[in-house]
């Protein structure tokens, strides 16, 4: 671990020296991280690749992870010290599919669901795609890295549950208003990551306005390699039948209109 930037009493960003993993990572992919050197926690935990780190010559040096202190693993990562070895396996999973102009990209993030959008925003910027980030949190102090997105030319639409920044309420409200006002012939791709309730609402709103939607699902993963079946997601086939896929292999990015949200 080469840096630990504490953003608040609960959130931090860890920088790991993992150049080969970072160089191979695509927006939306994740890594399995083992915090600490003991047996508690026993298993690795999944984290989206937040940033691909580069040196002054643009050479890839590592990656960063956006972490929220909740349980044992995340608490160990919050308290990690410089030079500490952190086992990191990846990159894993199915990434986002960046669109090309003139299609616009609308990213919807809730809380730590911001994590995959830094790399996606970079990819979209390099393609000249006009992008908007709908970003919601409980309060203003939990809205992070806004300057990074502004620097990439991403429009920010902010919401907080307590009204301390942006619009008061849930992030899907301004998303729905924007979709309702947008011409049917003006293409837009919706990307979403965050709590499952937010993902379900985002996907259903996208369907309502006939817009494609890619969601990055959050599932507990025991292995990240498809062996434990702990991360299954119910999906609807074209005939309406429900089948299950492993989000570590088929996802974490999945088509929102095909997930069975009930």
What does this protein look like?
By secondary structure, the protein is an alpha/beta fold. It has 2 domains: 3-92, Translation factors (Elongation Factor Tu (Ef-tu), domain 3); 104-258, Rossmann fold (3-Layer(aba) Sandwich). Helices cover 21% and strands 32% of the residues. It has helices at residues 19-24, 72-78, 117-126, 146-151, 172-181, 196-208, 247-250; strands at 3-6, 11-16, 30-34, 45-48, 51-54, 60-68, 87-92, 104-110, 131-137, 155-160, 167-168, 188-193, 213-216, 232-236, 242-246, 253-255. A 7-stranded mixed sheet has the order 11-10-9-8-12-13-16, sandwiched between helices. Helix 5 (172-181) runs parallel beside helix 6 (196-208). The radius of gyration is 18 Å and the shape is globular.
Write out key terms for the chains shown.
single chain, 262 residues, Elongation Factor Tu (Ef-tu), domain 3, Rossmann fold, seven-stranded mixed beta sheet, four-stranded antiparallel beta sheet
């Amino acid at each position: 671990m080469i840096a630990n930037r504490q953003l608040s009493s609960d959130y931090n960003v860890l920088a790991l020296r993992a150049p080969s993993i970072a160089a191979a990572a695509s927006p939306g992919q994740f890594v399995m991280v083992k915090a600490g050197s003991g047996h508690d926690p026993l298993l690795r935990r999944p984290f989206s690749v937040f940033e691909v780190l580069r040196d002054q010559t643009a050479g890839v040096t590592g990656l960063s992870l956006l972490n929220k202190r909740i349980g044992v693993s995340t608490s160990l990562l919050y308290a990690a010290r410089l030079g500490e070895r952190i086992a990191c396996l990846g990159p894993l999973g199915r990434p986002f599919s960046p669109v090309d102009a003139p299609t616009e990209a609308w990213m919807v993030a809730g809380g730590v669901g911001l994590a995959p959008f830094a790399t996606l925003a970079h990819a979209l910027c390099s393609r000249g795609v006009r992008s908007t980030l709908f970003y919601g949190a409980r309060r203003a102090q939990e809205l992070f890295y806004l300057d990074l997105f502004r620097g990439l030319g991403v429009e920010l639409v902010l919401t907080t549950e307590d009204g301390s920044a942006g619009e008061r309420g849930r992030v899907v409200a301004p998303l729905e208003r924007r979709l309702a006002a947008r011409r049917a012939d003006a293409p837009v791709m919706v990307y979403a990551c965050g709590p499952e309730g937010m993902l379900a609402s985002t996907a259903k709103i996208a369907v309502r306005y006939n817009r494609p939607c890619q969601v990055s699902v959050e599932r507990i993963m025991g292995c990240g390699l498809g062996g434990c079946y702990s991360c299954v997601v119910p999906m609807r086939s074209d005939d309406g039948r429900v089948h299950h896929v492993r989000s570590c292999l088929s996802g974490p990015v999945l088509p929102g209109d095909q997930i069975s949200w009930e």
